[in-house]
Design a protein that fits this description.
- This protein is an alpha/beta fold.
- It is built from 14 helices and 17 strands.
- Strand 15 and strand 16 form a beta hairpin.
- It starts with a strand and ends in a 12-residue tail after the last helix.
- The relative contact order is 0.20.
């Protein structure tokens, strides 16, 4: 059996045609029709770098200490790729990794078209969290919008072509393999290829500003990531049409890979998984991009198709850390992970997500169980509690009106980790990282950027 794991960047759970009819994604919808669809899949962190480290290792962020955008995976903790390669199987990555650099061993037999964090350091401003500093690049999100061309598009097309060529090599029929294929879209800049942008009418998505919730940490995040200040009603519509266009663009890339898999005759012996590292707020509640625990940022699509995987829906919470034991399980490879094999999911699990990154002076931990979501803010800040069955848009905080459920959530959380100790551990690690970079002033002087360049190695 082979495994093809396809990952896109910043695709929210709802941004697919079979979920939300506004978005045209016929190829992913075609895959979904024959997949087990995990409708409550969550990222281990609503930001790229720690999520990708957690997916690689099959462990939660607090277990591995890759907390932020400036603490990328370095391969020191063995991940699923190490186990697969060491079992003698071909294990390739094609596309974005967002690990530290090409000098580290991440377990892959081959690494094609990689992108890593900038300069082996990443976005170091993420470390300056107490006090929260100023983020200078927030205006670009509102101005780099509409139809056009970016290096990200060119990169994604290369990833697609490289993947198709790799699949067409006759050697793929000789031994089992695992391929991790990772595109950039629909990650900002919100500039879509003209033909994909033209699918959508920006006027249909115009809106005024949305008010951020009245919570001190969320106000802190909204003030730091103040993208919405630079939008107008019209530009919000253009940006959303661009995002939808990027979803259609990356859907076409996925379609080409699926077609190549079919054409080579490999599809019948391949388990396919499709997901995204995190979602996109797209102006909801006044937030753009990610970094919150609202479902648009932290909940992602997750599809699995292949032999012995019955199509249908699985509606209990799962995590992207489950990909590691699933890949190893399909390939018959042993490994030790915190997640569970998604071919044998557990309906009674609780799921965690964490944020220890820029714009936030305390650690945030999300707990999902049954229909409930608890958001815990460290250092004494009030929690939030939502019932996602009755309030899927997360508008009604029940933390004061449902004390029994709140206490149940807090008890479940503390059975899995001590969020206050995790918060202290994180700040201790990040203080050491700041010192290793030369101190606070040296970190402040580092180049600020809105997104990782497509040629970052």
């Amino acid at each position: 059996m082979n495994v093809l794991l396809m990952m896109v960047d910043e695709l929210s759970w709802w941004a697919l045609g079979h979920v939300d009819g506004r978005v045209q994604t016929p190829n992913i919808d075609r895959l979904a029709a024959r997949s087990r669809r995990f409708t409550q899949a969550y990222t281990p962190s609503p930001i790229c770098v720690p999520t990708r480290a957690a997916i690689a290792t099959g462990r939660y962020v607090h277990e591995i200490g890759h907390w932020s955008s400036a603490e990328p995976y370095d391969g020191a903790i063995r991940g699923w790729a190490h186990h697969v390669r060491d079992a003698g199987l071909d294990c390739v990555s094609i596309g974005k990794l967002h690990y530290r650099s090409q000098l580290d061993d991440y377990g892959f037999s081959h690494t094609l078209e990689p992108i890593h964090v900038l300069n082996g350091e990443g976005w170091v401003q993420a470390l300056l969290r107490k006090p929260v500093e100023t983020y200078e690049d927030t205006q670009d999100l509102a101005t780099e919008i509409g139809p056009g061309r970016t290096d990200y598009h060119d990169f994604d097309r290369r990833v697609t072509q490289t993947t198709c060529d790799w699949l067409k090599d006759p050697v793929r029929h000789e031994t089992p393999w695992c391929a991790f294929v990772s595109w950039l879209a629909p990650h900002f800049p919100l500039i879509a290829p003209a033909k994909d942008y033209a699918r959508y009418d920006p006027k249909a998505y115009e809106s005024g500003p949305d008010t951020s919730p009245d919570h001190p940490i969320l106000r802190e995040l909204a003030a730091y990531f103040d993208h919405d200040l630079y939008f107008t009603r019209q530009s919000r519509g253009i940006a959303r049409a661009s995002y939808f266009g990027l979803c259609s663009f990356v859907d076409a890339q996925v379609g080409q890979v699926l077609d190549a898999l079919e054409a080579t005759g490999l599809a019948e012996d391949t388990v396919i998984a499709f997901t995204s590292d995190h979602g996109e707020m797209l102006g909801e509640k006044g937030f753009w991009t990610k970094s919150t625990m609202y479902d648009s940022a932290v909940r992602v699509p997750l599809l699995m198709a292949g032999p012995d995987i019955a199509p249908g829906t699985w509606d209990s919470p799962v995590s992207l850390i489950d990909l590691a034991p699933t890949i190893c399980g399909v390939l018959g490879v042993k490994g030790s992970f915190s997640g569970v094999d998604l071919t044998k999911p557990d309906a009674n699990r609780v799921i965690l997500s964490e944020y220890h990154d820029g714009g936030c002076s305390v650690g945030i931990t999300m707990l999902r169980w049954d229909d409930w979501k608890l958001v815990y803010y460290a250092e004494g800040h009030a929690p939030q509690l939502f019932n996602l069955a009755s309030d899927p848009c997360e508008q009604i905080d029940l933390s004061l009106t449902e004390p029994v459920i709140l206490q149940s959530g807090l008890d479940r959380l503390k059975q899995n980790l001590d969020p206050e100790q995790v918060n202290r551990d994180c700040f201790a690690d990040q203080t050491k990282q700041i010192e290793a970079l030369g101190g606070v002033e040296a970190v402040r002087s580092r180049e600020q950027f809105g997104y990782t360049p497509a040629d970052s190695q």
